[in-house]
Amino acid sequence: MLLVLGTHLRRRTNPFIDIALLADQSFVRVIANDLIINIILLGVLLLLPLLLADIYQLSSVTTGAIFFLAALFSSTASMLSGRLLVHYNQVALIYGGTGLMIIGLIILSIFASHSLLLTILGTILIFISYSTIQVALNSFVPLALNDDCIGVGLGLYNLTNFIGMALGPALASKLLELGANYSFLFLGVVLVVLPLFPLLYKLVLPTQNSLLQD
């Protein structure tokens, strides 16, 4: 599909998606981060209700209450992250959110089958980390694009969201079918998080470059 897309973009004089946009390393690295965190969150959202029902025999109402609690922490984290952007740049927030996500996943991989309270804590940390990273990426994308590419760039960014949301549950369910246990799956998700660090390495926005030059 990428080969077909590349061929199509080169044949058109004014394609809907400018190929120069896909050649922008900063933008591509940002949407790759977005893809990864959506794969992680939606994969975890598929696994956690199954785990809570299988291991702790919780009802759907109780499971929903746990997610509601995590969502409250997530919304609070979104507001705080917006304020932190005044003092810290987007990359620093993404690093912080990634660290929290890894801690939450490790807690789930070790304690998900042994402690309900720690399972809830790991879930809350993952929700908080996702909101923190998402706020940073939402403010990052317009800065990484030229003014004439912002519309199409934001469209691609949202498309990446949906692709990640589809891939996460699909991959998680396939691994469950193969007989993987929950601890192994959560530990495996940590490996999916790790590419965020090289993707962020020396990531500098064009606007930051111009400010430094001025």
Structure, described:
The protein is 82% helix and 0% strand. By secondary structure, it is mostly helical. The termini are far apart. Mean pLDDT is 86; it is low at 208-214.
Oligomer: single chain
- Supply Rg: 19 Å
**Count of DSSP E strands?**
0
Proportion of helical residues = over 70%
The helix count comes to 10
Helix-strand topology string: HHHHHHHHHH
Unreliably modeled segments: 208-214
Reported for the largest beta sheet, the result is: none
The mean pLDDT is 86
Report the sheet-strand fraction.
Answer: under 5%
Class based on secondary structure composition and strand pairing: mainly alpha
Task: Detail the topology: elements first, then pairings.
Elements: H1 2-11, H2 19-22, H3 25-56, H4 60-84, H5 90-111, H6 116-144, H7 150-177, H8 182-193, H9 196-200, H10 206-213
Keywords:
214 residues, mainly alpha, 10 helices, disordered C terminus
Summarize the structure in short.
The chain is mainly alpha-helical and 214 residues long. Helices cover 82% and strands 0% of the residues.
